[in-house]
Design brief:
The protein is built from 19 helices and 18 strands. By secondary structure, it is of the alpha+beta class. The protein has a seven-stranded antiparallel sheet with strand order 6-3-2-10-9-1-18, covered by helices on one side.
């Protein structure tokens, strides 16, 4: 390496260190560019976002540039989850630093703990799910802007450009999307304007969104201010008012993403880096991985996805969901004892409670301390920088409310709060006081963008959508690669299962890739009920580094595209 090159590297490292502390990307070390991989890789939820990534990376952009471009494209071509009206998390590693950007939605200033209850204290039907009253203050545009401000190398407008083009000129609707539209129209009924805007997708073919194109043009020229102020902000608040929502211009103007320290734990010689609160995903992935490691002797003779293998993991998952319900919420509002929850001593205590031969009853699984739809993408650039990004509207097409004149959907993330302690949300997950509704508070999440490091270098980038099944799916994908010796494609293509404490005897499995008949029969003999999940959970996007090569895969359950760029 020449001295000039070393000086240039040192200069850029210095500039990155003093830049505003604002962003996301999982980026691998710049210690020695001679050691950088010459190959980039991506695992994306659709072909349009994949093409955006390829175009940016091949033109010299970095992983943050690619992430920004892809996220905006998904807001057009993947409207059931890709968004500008929702929020999410970005995990990053850059220049030997682990970074996490929280751009999760927040409750409006007018929100209150009992806002979804009637005079008798009962939950009003679907109010936290359908309609503008279900929407939190969106965070996606502010999050992408913050990421680009800190790490972007290409002009902002250039990165938003592909999304504008797809909105103006249209994209071809995938048959799976077209087939799902009538069911979503029935779900929203006449309570929203969803059918007016997206009913045409049921016919397939070319789908254009001219109103959304205008919003994206304002974002392109004005940055985040093109969304949180001015014409777009007026459109959002007027739509919210018409539909009985709570969003105000002050809510929009006051929104800010937050840089947080990601969770980190050692497992089998890897550093597992994952999402901190207000996500429960990182804690859950770490607990599950370390519990399985502590139970190695029990797993040693078991085939993956055999009845006993599934039973032991279900016992582990019971305890994770118990802790999640009791302790987790927005760390800016409640004290989340996450360090204790991922400590060796505590996890060993939880392992000691696992019932090897019987199904633990709910009343025996207590918190251990005293006192469908999201989308994910994984990208690695040619310098070894990596991003694991999960963002969402919550349920398919969010609240179903489209901002008239803007053409984009508002989220229904308010359902991720505990709208009433002990009452399950749409994913069947119960919560407690730590996740109660408060103005300006971020709702609890299961999103689990995760990166595995070895010796400071990125070895795996993984994540998935799936509500409460997110962290159980991420856990199984990691274990499939590291413990079960699968390739990236084999790992994301394997059958998956899920258990979440309640009902105590129910194990759900992948709809299109079910468990074996033998495993199902053996589990039923043990007293379990085994059923296909209510929806096809998980759309895992995984990049693994093995034998000196990047290995990328998109889940066959979805319509994703993965590949490498040499």
């Amino acid at each position: 390496m020449t001295k000039i090159r070393q000086d240039v590297i040192k200069l850029f490292s210095t500039l990155a260190a003093v830049a505003m502390s604002l962003m996301i990307t999982a980026c691998v070390s710049f210690d020695d560019l001679n050691q950088a991989t010459k190959t980039a890789a991506y695992a994306m939820p659709d072909k349009y976002s994949a093409q955006a990534v390829v175009d940016v990376l091949e033109s010299g952009g970095n992983v943050i540039d690619a992430s920004v471009a892809a996220a905006f494209v998904l807001a057009v071509t993947f409207p059931e989850a890709g968004n500008i009206g929702g929020g999410g998390f970005m995990l990053a590693r850059m220049n030997d630093q682990n970074l996490f950007l929280d751009y999760r939605e927040v409750a409006p200033a007018a929100a209150s703990a009992d806002m979804y209850l009637n005079a008798k204290g009962e939950v009003r039907d679907k109010e936290s799910l359908i309609g503008a009253r279900a929407a939190g203050v969106p965070g996606t545009v502010a999050g992408l802007w913050a990421a680009h401000q800190r790490f972007g190398s290409k002009p902002w407008a250039e990165l938003v450009g592909p999304a504008i083009a797809y909105a103006k000129n249209g994209f071809q609707v995938h048959p799976k999307k077209a087939q799902a539209i009538p069911e979503n129209m029935e779900w929203f009924g006449d309570r929203t304007n969803f059918s007016e805007y997206f009913g045409g997708m049921a016919d397939g073919g070319l789908f254009k969104q001219p109103e959304l194109a205008k919003v994206l043009e304002r974002i392109s020229t004005k940055g985040k201010d093109g969304f949180y102020f001015g014409e777009t902000a007026t459109l959002i608040t007027e739509q919210s008012d018409r539909n009985g929502g709570l969003l105000s211009k002050t809510d929009l103007a006051d929104y800010k993403p937050i840089w947080r320290s990601p969770l980190k734990a050692n497992w089998r010689g890897y550093d597992v880096v994952s999402a901190p609160p207000p996500s429960s995903g990182g804690f859950a992935v770490i607990q599950l991985l370390k519990m399985k490691e502590m139970l190695d002797a029990e797993f040693a003779s078991l085939q993956p996805n055999s009845a006993q293998y599934i039973h032991l993991i279900a016992e582990m998952e019971k305890r994770v969901f118990s802790d999640r319900a009791e302790y987790f919420g927005d760390p800016d509002f409640v004290n989340v004892p996450v360090i204790k929850l991922i400590s060796e001593e505590y996890i060993q205590q939880r392992v000691s409670e696992v019932a090897f031969d019987s199904i633990s009853q709910p009343d025996s699984v207590r918190p251990g301390l005293e006192s469908p739809n999201t989308t994910h993408f994984s990208i690695v650039d040619k310098w070894g920088n990596a991003v694991s990004n999960t963002y969402t509207l919550n349920w398919n097409y969010g609240s179903g409310v489209v901002v008239e004149g803007g053409g984009f959907l508002l989220n229904n993330q308010m359902d991720d709060f505990s709208i009433k302690p002990g009452v399950a949300n749409i994913y069947g997950v119960v919560g407690g006081a730590a996740n109660s509704i408060q103005p300006g508070k971020r709702m609890l999440s299961s999103m689990s963008p995760t990166i595995l490091l070895r010796g400071g270098e990125v070895e795996m980038v993984v994540g998935t959508p799936g509500g409460s099944t997110i962290f159980t799916s991420v856990f199984q994908a990691i274990v499939n690669v590291v413990d079960n010796g699968m390739s990236a494609n084999e790992a994301v293509s394997a059958s998956r299962f899920h258990h979440q404490l309640l009902p105590h005897d129910l194990i759900t499995m992948s709809v299109s890739i079910p468990l074996s008949e033998k495993a199902i029969t053996d589990l039923e003999k043990r007293g379990y009920r085994v059923k296909p999940h209510g929806w096809e959970f998980g759309d895992v996007q995984l990049i693994d580094y093995r034998n000196g090569e990047l290995d990328a895969a998109s889940d066959p359950r979805g319509i994703g595209v993965s590949g490498k760029i040499h």
